[in-house]
Amino acid sequence: MLQSIADDLRASLPLDAMLPSETTAHHKMQQQSRPTVHVDGFLYDDEQVDQLCEEGTMSRSYCLTCGSCSTAALDFISHSFSVSELRFLFQNVLPDLSGRVLVDVGSRLGAVLYGGYVYSSASRLVGLELSSEFIRLQNETLQKYKLTDRVQVLHADVCTQDVLLQNADVVVMNNVFEYFMEPSEQVRAWRFIMQNLRKKGSLLVTVPSLQESLSALQEALQPGWVEELPVDYDVYLGRDADADTLREIHLYRVM
Ligand SMILES: C[S@@+](CC[C@H](N)C(=O)[O-])C[C@H]1O[C@@H](n2cnc3c(N)ncnc32)[C@H](O)[C@@H]1O
């Protein structure tokens, strides 16, 4: 089902799976110190990227001296979890989610919601997303694949969702803000989350670590808010899984 959803989404999006309206994200990618392209990990696995490179539709490298063979590797980033990361998240990082409510902050294409439907028993999976176009795309997918019994998406800024955060059992934040909001807005959003994700024992999954996200903003982690839980990264998830990417997934428990 996840492959079929990815096929549908690939057909409705441009190759870089980004919207013209994502001006902040486009701008931030251009500002990276090395040439960086977005290749969505949910839509394109390594084999598909290889095939597109062979066809000449995609490239893994850029020319250092135009017209010569002197090339360097492009940096790839993904704004979605890949299927192997989703399997790792739901089968190796999180506990049994029966009867629990999971909130994906910034649900974008909906990868976490579809992965959570397939790989977990969460009773409710709620996606929050700023972009109305991605909300429409997710809603079409939820209807087509009949996932609405457990999955719901809201067109909302996380900073308006205090009650949802207060009642969530699991909150997933996969690099939500870095490319999509200016630093001052990111600080405001993190403070809102630290204030409202307070239910004792609730779990928070972040990519990258809280320390990395907050220190880049020179913002302090509220003392006594969460404790980091160990994750076993030494599992084999097939050729497609990238060990370095999995190590970016961190798990915390609200104290
Ligand atoms: C990196 S994507 C995460 C995708 C998805 N959670 C996954 O793991 O596959 C981040 C998304 O968060 C959305 N976003 C950024 N700031 C947000 C906010 N304050 N409230 C809700 N969504 C937000 C962006 O529009 C973007 O689509």
From TrEMBL:
Cross-referenced InterPro entries: Arsenite_MeTrfase-like, Methyltransf_11, SAM-dependent_MTases_sf
Pfam family, one: Methyltransf_11
GO molecular function, one term: S-adenosylmethionine-dependent methyltransferase activity
Superkingdom of source: Eukaryota
Ranges of residues in domain Methyltransferase type: 116-204
PANTHER family, A to Z: ARSENITE METHYLTRANSFERASE (PTHR43675), RIKEN CDNA 2700097O09 GENE (PTHR43675:SF1)
Protein name (database record): Uncharacterized protein LOC128375619
Species of origin: Scomber scombrus
